[in-house]
Amino acid sequence: MDRTQIEATVLDMVNKAKAAARVIGAMPAALKNTILLEVGEALIAQQAFILAENAKDMAAAEQKGISAAMLNRLQISEKGIKDMVQGLREVAALEDPVGEVSEMRRRPSGITVGRMRVPLGVILMIYESRPNVTIDSAALCLKAGNAVILRGGSEAINSNLALAKVLQEVLAKHAVDPAIVQVLSFTDREGIDCLLQQEEYIDLVIPRGGEGLIRAVTEKSRIPVLKHYKGVCHCFVDEDADQEMAIRVILNAKVQRPGVCNALEGLLVHREIANEFLPKVATALKEAGVRILGCHRSCLLCDEMIEPAGESDWGTEFLDLALVVRVVADLDEAMDYIDRYGSKHTEIILTRSYERSQRFLREVDASAVMVNASTRFNDGGQFGLGAEIGISTTKLHAYGPMGLKELTTRKFIVYGAGETRA
Amino acid sequence: MDRTQIEATVLDMVNKAKAAARVIGAMPAALKNTILLEVGEALIAQQAFILAENAKDMAAAEQKGISAAMLNRLQISEKGIKDMVQGLREVAALEDPVGEVSEMRRRPSGITVGRMRVPLGVILMIYESRPNVTIDSAALCLKAGNAVILRGGSEAINSNLALAKVLQEVLAKHAVDPAIVQVLSFTDREGIDCLLQQEEYIDLVIPRGGEGLIRAVTEKSRIPVLKHYKGVCHCFVDEDADQEMAIRVILNAKVQRPGVCNALEGLLVHREIANEFLPKVATALKEAGVRILGCHRSCLLCDEMIEPAGESDWGTEFLDLALVVRVVADLDEAMDYIDRYGSKHTEIILTRSYERSQRFLREVDASAVMVNASTRFNDGGQFGLGAEIGISTTKLHAYGPMGLKELTTRKFIVYGAGETRA
């Protein structure tokens, strides 16, 4: 397509999305839930069609020589469809946040003022290869009363269009505007660029993917962007920590699922217990297959278990069985280190000290700050938000896991009896 | 200054601000309040110095041939200083939002999760000529635990630096990092451009000024921007409205202070009462000196009181004794009009109908939606937020008047006892 066609297509999409946002914004929860459950049924009924469209993407990707890991993420399996259906059921079961009224108070003027939770409007999702994001994101946006425009990876275009078709057929069956969920039907990069200029129509952009994608979207977008940057999570082991518990928590944080953003990437150990604790934890980590890069002191204490860390290793998001270790003088040095190398994702302290637990909770700036618990708990499900659409590591609008509520906003409502301002 | 010097100066400022943010973020409310009250005392004690520095700006502005209105906004009077002091006292009296913990709940895993209200970090204020914004904004940012960088109009540079000096001397007296409040000390435009790239250091930009300023900042900024666009506020007079009350509310909304963003700019009248109501309201508005531009029908009904409106008049922010009037068929047509021409600021319905009041409250998308009350109530003070730093007309983070709470965010905190994720 040429530039004029792209602009015309995008403008048509955003206009349709804005109109559809009014429809979904006013839809009662019962109908939204029925639609979500029926989409699940339709995914199963149309499994053959979806797998066939996905096979086209897989064939094209293989021809292009795409890596096995990428192919794996691109593939939709029967199990993958079952997972999508399960996800739809879970979202249908969540409480509808729209319409909640809070903080209603009579003011001295006589008016009664409160806040009503309302959808954001139109959300643009930009994501990479995994086609299941199409259904997962659409379900969350729809349940929160938003219209959504989906722009997945170009290699997944047939899969994404197939999934959107199934979804839109259910909407059409209920005589509901199918533009509530739209997939960008072409893969030219100019399509994204043009969408990111539509601040009059789109209320929020959520990029899901690597740091490069998020930075590129932030640079180009005039629309507010919810950013989920990397997770460089730390654990500070205080001088009086329960050492057995510490080893258990550290192993869980690093080893249980090393490739995710809430996995542990850096260990800070109080110098008073370094001699005793470091060899123990290093042994446990080595047994679990973890590569350890450490400061000079920790290398001396642990012989060959710890390799010397280079300057660039501090603050690295390994996403793998690897981490850095540093011996620190006290809580202040630990917090300075976290301030310098952390990514505002998840930071934990292991301690028996009331005072230091409180200082850590108050003073450390991260989306989740924890005492004596694994970093792996920073997750919408674990925190009780239900399904999550991402974990925000910037502070505007949402900080930490984003559930349905974070896909809404609150407007002020006023009940009066003819009051005027003096 | 050349580009390299500007970049070095800006980088120095943002580094200092980030360090200062940790200091103010952890400061107890009592000390913050003492500082605010002492700044008030210092403003009075150093009034001669402030007025002398302001006189330099005034002289330079006069030489440049700046308009009388601009000169008026630039001038600091003794009354102006008293108002700043009063503002400081009001902010000191507000409850400190920082540290509030809410939604603490035990989760099935055993961990206890809640949310702690924390400062945003570093806020950049960009504003136009009025130097009182320097003190007002600094007070709100400081009370909410944030460091602030102020970039006022270049014509007010001496006034702003003088005010900041008074403020910083109070900070220094308490041995507190003076970089909590910094004024950009030079007026080159590249200074703003460079600041707007510092997303690693600055958490939020708040432009205060005309639409042009806000659009320019939004286009250039990589940092989230809180936008206060124009206020094109409407009133829909329903067929069964109390007509005397309607005239009273409409007059208040249009006439009480026509130059502000929550003043009425458009009147929509149900066709069932147009014959009776329009001549009455037009007479009242004309008596108050209001120019009325109307649709064909309203012109017919009101002879010479209403001039025909041109297409470009609909949706205009007059900020003056003028408004547009249109006769509409019903609530749906009124809401379609508001959706098309409104600016998501303030929309009101005057009605006796329960059903239509509820539909209007639910379905109209604006930062404040009201039944039977004047648009003029959309204000932080009137809504009970205390002093406000602006009225957001976009939906991310804040929608409507922004008080202290809107200058903070919430992080998750977790109390555990060694829990790990299964």
From TrEMBL, chains A, B:
InterPro entries the record matches: Ald_DH/histidinol_DH, Ald_DH_C, Ald_DH_N, Aldehyde_DH_dom, G-glutamylP_reductase_CS, Glu-5-SA_DH, GPR_dom
Domain Aldehyde dehydrogenase: start-end pairs: 8-288
Pathway given in the UniProt record: Amino-acid biosynthesis; L-proline biosynthesis; L-glutamate 5-semialdehyde from L-glutamate: step 2/2
GO MF: glutamate-5-semialdehyde dehydrogenase activity; NADP binding
Pfam families hit by this protein: Aldedh
Gene Ontology biological process terms in this record: L-proline biosynthetic process
Chief subcellular location: cytoplasm
GO cellular component terms, A-Z: cytoplasm
Subcellular location: Cytoplasm
Keywords of this entry: Amino-acid biosynthesis, Cytoplasm, NADP, Oxidoreductase, Proline biosynthesis
EC number assigned by the record: 1.2.1.41
Reactions catalysed: L-glutamate 5-semialdehyde + phosphate + NADP(+) = L-glutamyl 5-phosphate + NADPH + H(+)
Keyword tRNA processing: no
Claim: 4Fe-4S is one of the keywords in the record: no
Sequence similarity: Belongs to the gamma-glutamyl phosphate reductase family.
Purpose of the protein: Catalyzes the NADPH-dependent reduction of L-glutamate 5-phosphate into L-glutamate 5-semialdehyde and phosphate. The product spontaneously undergoes cyclization to form 1-pyrroline-5-carboxylate.
Protein name: Gamma-glutamyl phosphate reductase
Protein species of origin: Desulfobulbus propionicus (strain ATCC 33891 / DSM 2032 / VKM B-1956 / 1pr3)
Source organism phylogeny: Bacteria, Pseudomonadati, Thermodesulfobacteriota, Desulfobulbia, Desulfobulbales
Gene: proA
